[in-house]
């Protein structure tokens, strides 16, 4: 397990009895000019599985063509985060019992949020309705919308959270990232639009669940943590089990 794996992958592998060889840009030959393809090809000789997180969209797909061992995408910039999508669907099943028939609302920076890109794609395997709520200019990318539409899944964009909350079964919050805004004032305005509080959830279903890929900033009040509908910490724990299962599967030990 190598190439800057997140702590969750490291924990999963260690619980399976494995060891981690961690590599990042500062400690590898990348700083000497080595390409990603060469780095992955070399590290594949040192490990049984490669877990790669990279800031460039599409980098993991490119690296996979040069990797002789199983390669897991742990996030590629603003592109995709497939392991997060797997644990998200698993969490929904654990919390509600099924995914089919649900209305799932995704909120926040949907343009740059790789977690929602992968989740929307994965949810096309189920009978769901998708709702998107985001600040102006940060909506779900067209290529994701077109992919979802091509699978016959109902999807709709809304300007406010209050408008969609009563019909929502799964509220999937995401962090609005400061670096995407030209000024602090515009960032603060966008953040203030979507904050989940106990008062807001009085308008929601009693059995709705609130999820978040974490870390959160201001978008979910800490006062909500004791609400049974707050599933984000249970979601993080589910991520450990899903990553353990994924690692065991690709290593032929499942």
Automatic annotation (TrEMBL):
Protein name: aspartate carbamoyltransferase
Organism annotation: Cuerna arida
Record-annotated membrane-spanning stretches: none
Database matches in Pfam families: OTCace, OTCace_N
EC number(s) recorded for this UniProt protein: 2.1.3.2
Pathway: Pyrimidine metabolism; UMP biosynthesis via de novo pathway; (S)-dihydroorotate from bicarbonate: step 2/3
EC primary class: transferase
Domain Aspartate/ornithine carbamoyltransferase carbamoyl-P binding: 11-94
Keywords: Pyrimidine biosynthesis, Transferase
Catalyses which reaction(s): carbamoyl phosphate + L-aspartate = N-carbamoyl-L-aspartate + phosphate + H(+)
Residues covered by the Aspartate/ornithine carbamoyltransferase Asp/Orn-binding domain: 101-249
Keyword check for Transferase: yes
Functional description taken from the UniProt entry: Catalyzes the condensation of carbamoyl phosphate and aspartate to form carbamoyl aspartate and inorganic phosphate, the committed step in the de novo pyrimidine nucleotide biosynthesis pathway.
GO MF terms held by the record: amino acid binding; aspartate carbamoyltransferase activity
Domain of life: Eukaryota
BP-aspect Gene Ontology terms: 'de novo' pyrimidine nucleobase biosynthetic process; 'de novo' UMP biosynthetic process; amino acid metabolic process
Family recorded in the similarity comment: Belongs to the aspartate/ornithine carbamoyltransferase superfamily. ATCase family.
